[in-house]
């Protein structure tokens, strides 16, 4: 925990040596108080004193999670200020302020339920809160303050509902990242739905917002419904499919139509088959999806009846990482807009299939339970299987969060040109190579972890080679001699992978994106 915290502090200070402004004091104060409160959360988890059931075999992860959204907002603000895009500069300030307030709320919650009340930690949290609120008072307009408070309110309600319904699925830090992101997306969708201006906004952005909110609302609806019904019967399964069609065609489609001012299905088909390159990419991705399904069926066929407790090895699970890299790299090189939309569709399908598995919806629910049980690891301790969804999110978030409006030529200067590749580098290459080489050839373990020195060094080396290959094959990438910063970024994130107990598929790409955008 101490080394993980040290690495996060180094990343925070590295970012703010490049981008130093009034929010830098807030970030440093937030990091210091989150470091202290993190131990209170860990104590609550060990003693079973937390309000909800969180994922075991991991620390609270409050510090690394607390800094992600504020740092993303700060670097986005700086990039958009340099490009002269005032609207998105203000949006970056709102993102940073919202992230700080959400992290502060989670800290106050931990301090409030710790008995006896930790006086020193309370004082630190009060000082950090005062600095953040003072800075927000002098940085945000009234409408922006209301927006930040709206996100906080949504976060509180979502936390109470989802953490109760999904015990042991998240650590406090993961809950902050996932539920904080969901709260922000929901608030943005409501805000844009109430202020629709024809021709204003990118349809792909609206598609992301509606798809994410739609599948989450679908899950909440069926969770409440199946409290009163047995979800495993054919009648319930038919009702599930019927209501999915009704909600999709009767709520989600009209909602999307209102935002993009055209038929969503016709727009999607026209978008997907607009050019010959897109057709080739779709055929190629279909082949890779079939290959991934083939791996699942083949591994399950190998599982004999006398070894039902057999689990897939680390190397076997990393097959999917290689397939995802092979999926994303051509999309990033040839058509990022298509990759953006395809990733949204894939996320919606993944979450829908998880509902089918979780609720045992016929005819595929029980089959999915059997097939996916082979690939479970210690992080899937709750009722949901989330690791494959986290892998997709880790690869997609750098593409979705890339500030396109602040990059007129479609790419950022210097190391920022690698931002869309953050997921590929951190998870697809770095994490995969570290796991494979560490588990097969690693001998020298990092103190206090199961990760090896050889695995981390090989991961850094592999990511540097990957950057060189990106430079060769993607002509839009121009690093402008920022090689030392890229090496430092990759090294810090690889070391964080060795020491963190959080979901690395989600955390590492975001930190690499922050470093590259800075």
From TrEMBL:
<keyword id="KW-1133">Transmembrane helix</keyword>
<feature type="transmembrane region" description="Helical">
    <location>
        <begin position="56"/>
        <end position="75"/>
    </location>
</feature>
<feature type="transmembrane region" description="Helical">
    <location>
        <begin position="421"/>
        <end position="441"/>
    </location>
</feature>
<feature type="transmembrane region" description="Helical">
    <location>
        <begin position="117"/>
        <end position="136"/>
    </location>
</feature>
<dbReference type="GO" id="GO:0004168">
    <property type="term" value="F:dolichol kinase activity"/>
</dbReference>
<feature type="transmembrane region" description="Helical">
    <location>
        <begin position="87"/>
        <end position="111"/>
    </location>
</feature>
<keyword id="KW-0812">Transmembrane</keyword>
<keyword id="KW-0418">Kinase</keyword>
<feature type="transmembrane region" description="Helical">
    <location>
        <begin position="340"/>
        <end position="360"/>
    </location>
</feature>
<dbReference type="GO" id="GO:0043048">
    <property type="term" value="P:dolichyl monophosphate biosynthetic process"/>
</dbReference>
<keyword id="KW-0808">Transferase</keyword>
<keyword id="KW-0472">Membrane</keyword>
<feature type="transmembrane region" description="Helical">
    <location>
        <begin position="238"/>
        <end position="257"/>
    </location>
</feature>
<feature type="transmembrane region" description="Helical">
    <location>
        <begin position="148"/>
        <end position="166"/>
    </location>
</feature>
<feature type="transmembrane region" description="Helical">
    <location>
        <begin position="485"/>
        <end position="512"/>
    </location>
</feature>
<feature type="transmembrane region" description="Helical">
    <location>
        <begin position="7"/>
        <end position="36"/>
    </location>
</feature>
<comment type="similarity">
    <text>Belongs to the polyprenol kinase family.</text>
</comment>
<dbReference type="GO" id="GO:0005789">
    <property type="term" value="C:endoplasmic reticulum membrane"/>
</dbReference>
<feature type="transmembrane region" description="Helical">
    <location>
        <begin position="319"/>
        <end position="334"/>
    </location>
</feature>
<feature type="transmembrane region" description="Helical">
    <location>
        <begin position="277"/>
        <end position="298"/>
    </location>
</feature>
<keyword id="KW-0256">Endoplasmic reticulum</keyword>
<feature type="transmembrane region" description="Helical">
    <location>
        <begin position="206"/>
        <end position="229"/>
    </location>
</feature>
<protein>
    <recommendedName>
        <fullName>dolichol kinase</fullName>
        <ecNumber>2.7.1.108</ecNumber>
    </recommendedName>
</protein>
<dbReference type="InterPro" id="IPR032974">
    <property type="entry name" value="Polypren_kinase"/>
</dbReference>
<feature type="transmembrane region" description="Helical">
    <location>
        <begin position="453"/>
        <end position="473"/>
    </location>
</feature>
<feature type="transmembrane region" description="Helical">
    <location>
        <begin position="381"/>
        <end position="401"/>
    </location>
</feature>
């Amino acid at each position: 925990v101490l080394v993980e915290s040290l690495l996060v502090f180094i990343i925070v200070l590295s970012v703010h040596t490049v981008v130093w402004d009034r929010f830098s004091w807030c970030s440093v104060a937030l990091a210091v108080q989150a470091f202290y409160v993190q131990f209170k959360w860990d104590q609550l988890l060990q003693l079973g004193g937390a309000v909800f059931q969180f994922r075991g075999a991991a620390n609270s992860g409050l510090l690394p999670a607390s800094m992600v959204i504020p740092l993303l907002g700060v670097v986005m603000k700086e990039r958009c200020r340099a490009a002269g895009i005032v609207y998105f500069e203000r949006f970056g300030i709102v993102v940073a302020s919202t992230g700080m307030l959400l992290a502060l709320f989670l800290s106050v919650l931990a301090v409030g339920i710790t008995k006896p009340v930790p006086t020193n930690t309370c004082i630190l949290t009060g000082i950090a809160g005062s600095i953040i609120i003072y800075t927000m008072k002098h940085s945000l307009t009234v409408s922006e303050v209301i927006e930040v408070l709206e996100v906080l309110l949504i976060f509180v309600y979502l936390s109470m509902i989802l953490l109760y319904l999904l015990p042991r699925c998240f650590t406090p830090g993961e809950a902050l990242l996932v539920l904080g992101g969901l709260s922000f997306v929901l608030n943005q969708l409501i805000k844009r739905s109430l202020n629709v201006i024809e021709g204003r906004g990118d349809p792909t952005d609206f598609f992301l917002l509606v798809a994410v909110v739609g599948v989450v609302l679908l899950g909440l609806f069926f969770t409440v419904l199946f409290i009163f019904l047995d979800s495993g019967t054919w009648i319930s399964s038919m009702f599930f499919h019927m209501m999915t069609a009704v909600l999709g065609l009767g709520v989600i489609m009209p909602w999307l139509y209102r935002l993009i001012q055209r038929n969503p299905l016709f727009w999607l088909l026209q978008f997907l088959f607009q050019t010959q390159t897109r057709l080739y990419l779709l055929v190629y991705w279909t082949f890779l999806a079939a290959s991934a399904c083939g791996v699942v069926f083949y591994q399950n066929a190998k599982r004999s009846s006398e070894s039902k407790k057999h689990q897939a090895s680390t190397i076997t699970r990393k097959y999917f990482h290689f397939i995802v890299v092979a999926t994303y790299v051509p999309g990033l090189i040839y058509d990022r807009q298509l990759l953006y939309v395809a990733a949204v569709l894939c996320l919606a399908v993944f979450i829908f299939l998880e509902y089918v598995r979780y609720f045992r919806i016929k005819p595929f629910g029980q089959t999915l339970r059997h097939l996916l049980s082979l690939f479970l690891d210690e992080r899937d301790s709750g009722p949901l299987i989330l690791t494959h969804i986290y892998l997709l999110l880790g690869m997609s978030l750098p593409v979705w969060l890339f500030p396109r409006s602040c990059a007129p030529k479609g790419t950022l200067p210097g190391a920022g040109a690698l931002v869309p590749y953050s997921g590929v580098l951190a998870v697809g290459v770095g994490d995969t190579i570290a796991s494979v080489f560490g588990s097969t050839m690693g001998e020298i373990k990092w103190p206090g972890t199961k990760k090896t020195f050889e695995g981390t060094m090989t991961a850094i080396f592999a990511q540097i080679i990957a950057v060189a290959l990106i430079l060769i094959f993607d002509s839009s990438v121009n690093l402008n001699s920022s090689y030392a910063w890229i090496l430092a970024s990759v090294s810090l994130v690889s070391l964080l992978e060795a020491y963190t107990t959080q979901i690395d598929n989600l955390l590492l790409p975001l930190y690499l994106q922050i470093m590259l955008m800075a």
